[in-house]
Amino acid sequence: MGRKRGMPVDGWLVIDKPSGMTSTQVVGRARYLLDARKAGHGGTLDPLATGLLPIAFGKATKTVPYIMDGRKVYRFTLRMGESRDSDDAEGAVTGYSAIRPDDDELRAALPALTGDIMQVPPVFSALKVGGQRSYDMARAGRPPELPPRPARVDRFELIERVDRDTAIFEVESGKGVYMRALARDVALACGTVGYITALRRLRVGPFTEADAITLDKLVTNDEKSSTAPELLYPVATVLADIPALALTEDEAASVLYGRALSLADLEGRVPEVGEGEPIRAMTGERVLGLCRLRDGLLRPVRIF
């Protein structure tokens, strides 16, 4: 017999991921402990990394793109003087440098790596090249040439200089920014080489460290956790930053059936957003789904 389908669990669980586990392993463990039918996560963390891994269950999986687009805050430790093929501590050494920039030189390199930048991803990444994962090609001794990709870095700060070889940075960014690449590039910009020895995600969208729990909190006497559902955040938590529109019961019924509403009928209530920007459709405290403005109509695009 195959695996039971599990229970229809809906909501977000924020796990403080331990080092040494993949994001997929954490999701699988949490899904097992909650006996949940459907689960996904809000942005991969490297096995080496720790910190916030929001896990979406059931209907919350429909809101994953909105948390992926949200702000993320990371803290990483840069080790200077050695380069690694993976740009982190798990890789093989590929080079050395005797140069150690001072704090002012490190800070001077940060503006060029802030804002809208072009970033060459680490070769040990999940990007596909000709249908193959880049990290699979690298492990087979055929590392691909990855072209630079646009990335958005909103804040890049030197937080602490631990010693001559080691510095700690904090980064606020959007999606698709590789911290290993930032660590590599700030070292290169200062005329040396370096790699990440520690990486922690401190924030994802609306979630902070105060919202996170460790995996062992889900375990009760090695049985599936009976208290786990109480630890879930509502599906709509990640939509809090999206402008809201209050609908009447009749309007709500139309939206739930996938019908568009005329803006003329909603005059005075529609929040000011650009064409195609998401709007959170509400009836009372209940989130019905997400809509977008197009051609004078409010069109449902995602119903929960």
From TrEMBL:
<dbReference type="InterPro" id="IPR002501">
    <property type="entry name" value="PsdUridine_synth_N"/>
</dbReference>
<protein>
    <recommendedName>
        <fullName>tRNA pseudouridine synthase B</fullName>
        <ecNumber>5.4.99.25</ecNumber>
    </recommendedName>
</protein>
<dbReference type="GO" id="GO:0160148">
    <property type="term" value="F:tRNA pseudouridine(55) synthase activity"/>
</dbReference>
<feature type="domain" description="Pseudouridine synthase II N-terminal">
    <location>
        <begin position="32"/>
        <end position="179"/>
    </location>
</feature>
<dbReference type="InterPro" id="IPR014780">
    <property type="entry name" value="tRNA_psdUridine_synth_TruB"/>
</dbReference>
<feature type="domain" description="tRNA pseudouridylate synthase B C-terminal">
    <location>
        <begin position="180"/>
        <end position="237"/>
    </location>
</feature>
<dbReference type="InterPro" id="IPR032819">
    <property type="entry name" value="TruB_C"/>
</dbReference>
<keyword id="KW-0413">Isomerase</keyword>
<comment type="similarity">
    <text>Belongs to the pseudouridine synthase TruB family. Type 1 subfamily.</text>
</comment>
<feature type="active site" description="Nucleophile">
    <location>
        <position position="46"/>
    </location>
</feature>
<keyword id="KW-0819">tRNA processing</keyword>
<dbReference type="Pfam" id="PF01509">
    <property type="entry name" value="TruB_N"/>
</dbReference>
<dbReference type="Pfam" id="PF16198">
    <property type="entry name" value="TruB_C_2"/>
</dbReference>
<comment type="function">
    <text>Responsible for synthesis of pseudouridine from uracil-55 in the psi GC loop of transfer RNAs.</text>
</comment>
<dbReference type="InterPro" id="IPR020103">
    <property type="entry name" value="PsdUridine_synth_cat_dom_sf"/>
</dbReference>
